[in-house]
Please model this.
Amino acid sequence: EGTDIGKQEVYGELLDLSESGIIKKSWFRLWKHTDDKGKVRELPYFETIVISLDTAMTVNTASDYTACTVWGVFKPNEDKATSVMLIDCWTEYLQYPELRPRVVEEYDSIYGDENEFGNGKKVDMILIEDKSAGISLIQDLQRAGLPVRSYNPGQADKMMRLNIISPIIQKGR
Model:
């Protein structure tokens, strides 16, 4: 009684699948581009912008995608804790060396046009998982002078890492 599974099994309610996982859709908030009066709302000042890449093992439609996420780290105000905003993301069947120009293009992006939002900022760091295609990509981009850091999750699989960060997301950060 009082649980989601009870609502489903006892009362026959259809549950929203986006609310049944480790991370709930309702925990996320979209950035409102206007305030209550219709005035354009600027993006926050991003202290740091990080590109994160999870590279694919092989390039075919049966394998995983290469996933790229771009994160803006900001402080909503002095009274609130540091927060993170997902600025951009994409997935594609790409592997090194085809992945390299796409990452360089992302690195050259400016997030938050200075004239439109007042907060234009370049990427501060590229974080790449040092497995499979990521190993060659890390070495190549570091030789080119880009601010690349490798990441190795060790024994923590994606589900373990998701469980670790889910309380942070639940708190709205």
